[in-house]
């Protein structure tokens, strides 16, 4: 059975104080007990993620976080873990308690989520209890928006909450069309995929798989080859292809081989639009070119892996940067969820295609870069800019 990759699932997280009903809400939405429910505050100590299929949304993943009022040394670490979840979510459910007079933490987390443009649904749980029901109007007045009520005991409010969640999903839904308007039914599209030691044995990398499937879904005619066979493939065609999609690391070679007039892009560039903000990335690449020779660059990889010889993020891209700017350039590299909380010391952030991240995760990093006043771009767009062909590629 085909399992939707977690990075392509809609990410939902539940935030709130200890013992406010977060785990009960998650269990009710999932339809099974994945989180331990107890009257003892602090039962959930680590974030629990669960794949789920939700009506109106489809493939999703939901996170049950530790209470943001946790205490002690371990409590601080649990709260920090909950804060890191913020970077990964597309939608937040903020669970509210029965004490409207003590709302400081709820308002802080509400503001935090909103600052990253994350949709927030305020929910008063345990609404089978009188005190919680009485608090609803107070929370409405304080937040200035609709507050949903929910009871895991009676099931009341579940359908209305699911409808609201589906509404936010449809409002912010990824089109699922990675190639967008670049191609249409019947177009011949050439995919150039290097089969060097960086290519995983026996399989294609995630962006290649996603683009290939997208082209097949659109009834295009995809033709695949390694860079060494590109010239031979093009000679076999009766007419030039509608589009050539290449691995960014061979942009320069492919641009030289492809006939004038044939549109070119890369898997990374397509992912930049699909998972991020293409306009921000292009603007970031142009700003990168104005960086001083002793500037400081942050290269961010979404996936943690054992680097190989000629690794694009750790070897090829730094080499290209130093060739353009000189040996005095300072380059830092981070991977996975490791990402500085302060980017202000950098001249530019260059992010990978982020096939292993959700769009929300990438947009969180874009927002952080904007807040710190630092340009951000991605591998493919940065490479095209460094090679002087940014104006020749399509996105």
Main traits of this protein?
395 residues, alpha/beta, 6-stranded mixed β-sheet, 4-stranded parallel β-sheet
Structure description:
By secondary structure, this protein is α/β, with parallel strands linked by helices. The protein contains 13 helices and 14 strands. The chain has helices spanning 22-30, 72-86, 104-115, 130-143, 158-172, 206-217, 230-236, 251-257, 267-275, 278-288, 312-325, 359-371, 379-387, and strands at residues 10-15, 48-54, 58-64, 91-96, 120-124, 148-149, 188-192, 221-225, 243-246, 263-266, 296-301, 330-335, 348-351, 376-378. The strands form 3 sheets. The chain has a 6-stranded mixed β-sheet, sandwiched between helices. Helix 4 (130-143) links the parallel strand 5 (120-124) and strand 6. It is globular, with a radius of gyration of 24 Å.
SSE run: EHEEHEHEHEHEHEHEHEHHEHEEHEH
Largest sheet strand order: 2-3-1-4-5-6
- Computed Rg: 24 Å
Mean pLDDT score:
88
Largest sheet: 6 strands, mixed
Count, helices: 13
Structural class: alpha/beta
Q: Stretches where pLDDT falls below 50 for ≥5 residues? A: 33-45
The level of helicity is: 25-40%
How far apart are the termini?
Answer: 33 Å
User: Assembly type of the shown chains?
Assistant: single chain
Beta-sheet strand percentage? 15-25%
Summarize the structure.
This protein is α/β, with parallel strands linked by helices. Helices cover 37% and strands 18% of the residues.
